[in-house]
Amino acid sequence: MMKKSIERIYLFVIFLFLYLPILVLIVLSFNDSKAKVVWGGFTLRWYRELLANSAIMEAFYTTIFVSLASALIATILGTLASLGIDAMRGRGKAIMLGATNIPLLNADIVTGISMMLLFVRFTRLGLNTVLIAHITFNIPYIILNVLPKLKQRSRTTYEAALDLGATPLYAFFKITWPQILPGVLSGFLMAMTMSLDDFSVTYFTKGAGINTLSTMIYTEMRKGIRPEMYALSTILFIIALILLLFMNFRPAARKERRNP
Amino acid sequence: MRKTILFLLGILALSSFCAGCGKKDSPDILTILNYGKYIEPEVLDMFEEETGIKVEYEEYITPENMYTKYKAGAIDYDLICTSDYMIEKLIKEDEALELNFGNIPLARHLDQTYFDFCKSFDPDNQYTLPYFFGTVGILYNKKMVDESKVDSWDILWDQSYSGKIIMADSVRDSFMVAEKRLGYSLNTTDDDKLREAQNLLIEQKPLVYSYLVDEAQDEMIAENAAMAVVYSGEAGLALEYNENLAFSVPKEGSNMWIDAWFMPKSAKHTENAEKFLNFLCREDIAYLNFDYVYYATPNIQVKDSLDTELQENTTIFPPKEILDNCEVLKPLDDETTMRYNLYWKEIKSAD
Amino acid sequence: MRNLKRQLLAGPYILWMAGFIVLPTLVILYYGFTTTSGNFSLLNVTSIAFSVHLKALVLSLKLALSCTVICLVLSYPLAMILNSMKSKSQGLIVFIFILPMWMNFMLRILAWRLLLSNNGVINSLLGALSLPGLDILNTPKAVVFCMVYDFLPFMVLPIYNAMARIQPDIIEAAKDLGAGNITIFFKIIVPLTMSGVISGIIMVFVPALTSFAISDLLGGGKVLLIGNVIEQAFMQEYNWNLGSGLSVVLMVFVIASMALMNSHGDEGGGTFA
């Protein structure tokens, strides 16, 4: 009993630690004062003004677009790559894994600047350069999530299916795919989160007039964040909460039904 | 599962549509690079509406950041707003284009005094249009500080305020404080004087609560510190939120800064750029910007339209005798710049 | 034959990697080993020996190490507790730890600034309880605190995943053979979660070593890390050669410590899945 309550308290403290700043930001989004250190009473003003603020809304759409699109493309490329790497052996595999880790090892700012230097030579910076950069740093997260699942899966079933005359494609979708799906999904989620949170890489690879929420917040940091930003972050957080709950409970519910 | 993926794809399609809208590539564009939060956003919308020119607006934090971004050559900016010494550096590097003041008739609304100040970095007033100006001084809390002493930089070395002092987190501004206290020019290149200033700043470090730039304002409003070295404009804003605060420009002299617009060499739409500058000088627009930024504006019409209390607010509008006691920053040669940077890092990593 | 065909699936990625990972790395190497005029030089790389830079590197190593150790100490019991609550789905746990990241990290750090400041919420609460105030803002302690906050999920999740993979049968078998709880912990649980611990350490140590934003925002400009030096070289001093040179050194450091860790485990098995 004693042990249980200590465990409970420990969990509570950790979750408080993780969610306290978020609580602060949500409170600030209702604060009727432009200075963040002064409480001026409850208001919904920032939510109203947010919808009228075209610059912030455009940055919001760009952010969502970049993170979704980059995560999706990275998931496709990364899953294919994992299948390929899984089939490799020896030195080839080691080289691939090593190179995959480079974006994770570099300081963000170095990744960002090196890409900018490269892009400037060949093309104009724009939304597509941001997208390419995000896909690049997203792919490792997919591979890191999918590869272990590939290693754990049972090969025998897949081979049995082939022996029974299934085409490789059919066997893949019927047998391998369901086994690696959790890895693919959590990779996708990780990638999207990383992309959403990135500042350094975006800042250097974006073209004129393109803003994501991160770059916008960064330039405002010195002179004080616009309160609309807190409102938008709160909305984004709530959307994520709903979306993730939805994604988490649907498959789980179905699985339970399948094996009673 | 398939449904979830379809759902995500749907969002993707929708958001790509939204990200695409309003970004149609019209030939009539204007690419601007400015400090963060340094223009009323509505002004950009109004300009687009009135002229049909699409504005691509970019922001940066420090003049050095701007220089990096500009020099990388990744984006062809048409118009840049930055500070005195950085403009001078770019003019010297032959990176500025001459303005045709014939296309900016409303520039006559700007006080000639500030064009004269601009001569320190743009001798013939060929390249720049002043935007906002101010000084650097001490923002202090009347309840926590002995007011008879804030007229000197010495107070920033006073042991009794240990842990209550906010210094500027920028090389030039911090060195300025030490150099002025020592009675030197803030543009000194003499290595001995620099070392002396550095030692002074290292000596001060244990007393410093933190090194901040514009965030200092929030800390002062929350009364987390007793005094802070800030730009006059920030001080003006802080005074509105906490009546215990006051601002002083020490008698040893200080830095006077002017932020101004210029057209860089990369400009592709010079006519649009001049149209925009003219637009900024219009009284209603200049007023909107003043009200948003709350720094001293060189626009006479705007200043005259304010109520007298605001006009006589010496924090926002520094009086002439204070300005005369101030110096404008000059760009330094590469070697001195490197020395400043190295000394600054040594201060930052000192114990 | 079939194997070769499958290897080809990595083709698009290899092309992508060559273009957007290897090429940019070469660009950095080029800048790191040349002067502004383009001549070969080792000066940028050797400038790590400057006392300022060395001090920053040592401080970064110190802070990153403390952050990693604290994360590990907090995470291991946490993962065990989470693992013992079998009823919840694994996805939900991952979700609880990832969700905070959907609020921009700079905003979250700013929120900590507010919470920790002299007249902030935490100190007001402590004051009301007549407890001594928490005066860590603008010190290296605050930087470590926030690093732990930011990187904790990267330690918890891999350990938790490794633990969730342990078959209950193994533990049952050990019990049947007379092993006590302590023996089970050290002989079974610890070795079987080692791969998770190692990928956790890497995922925390590396970003902690290279970060600059946290020390910028919570160190009050008084904590100079190697990440800050690199950032300043690129952004403030317009000295890309120096920035690149120091990045190369940092990269070598990171790769060396990774290799050291990996020699004790397999290839980072199962970070998040």
Describe this structure in words.
The complex is a heterotrimer of chains A (260), B (351) and C (273). With 260 residues, chain A is mainly α. Chain A has helices at residues 2-29, 45-52, 54-87, 90-105, 108-122, 127-152, 155-163, 168-197, 200-205, 213-221, 227-258. With 351 residues, chain B is of the alpha/beta class. Chain B has 15 helices and ten strands. Chain B starts with a helix and ends with a helix. Chain B has helices at residues 2-20, 41-51, 63-71, 84-92, 112-118, 171-182, 191-204, 216-221, 232-241, 270-281, 283-293, 300-305, 308-311, 320-324, 334-349, and strands at residues 29-35, 54-60, 79-83, 96-97, 129-141, 165-168, 208-212, 227-231, 245-248, 256-264. In chain B, strands 1, 2, 3, 4, 5, 6, 7, 8, 9 and 10 form a ten-stranded mixed beta sheet that branches. In chain B, β1, α2 (41-51) and β2 form a beta-alpha-beta unit. With 273 residues, chain C is mainly alpha-helical. Chain C has helices at residues 2-7, 11-32, 43-46, 51-84, 90-98, 105-116, 121-128, 140-165, 168-176, 181-210, 213-218, 226-235, 240-262. At the A-C interface, α1, α3, α4, α5 and α6 of A face α1, α2, α4, α5 and α6 of C.
Q: What characterizes the major β-sheet of chain C?
A: none
Task: Name the helix and strand elements of chain A from N-terminus to C-terminus, one letter apiece.
Answer: HHHHHHHHHHH
Q: Rg of chain A to the nearest angstrom?
A: 22 Å
Order of helices and strands of chain C: HHHHHHHHHHHHH
Kindly state the number of beta strands of chain A: 0
* Range of helix content of chain C: over 70%
* Binned strand content of chain C: under 5%
Task: Sum up the overall morphology of chain A in one term.
Answer: globular
What form of chain C results from the Cα inertia axes?
A: globular
User: Which pair of chains forms the biggest interface, and how many residues does each contribute?
Assistant: A-C, 91 and 82 residues
User: What is the number of E strands of chain C?
Assistant: 0
Low-confidence stretches of chain C: 266-273
Indicate the percent of residues in helices of chain A: over 70%
Q: Return the average pLDDT of chain A rounded to an integer.
A: 85
Number of helices of chain A: 11
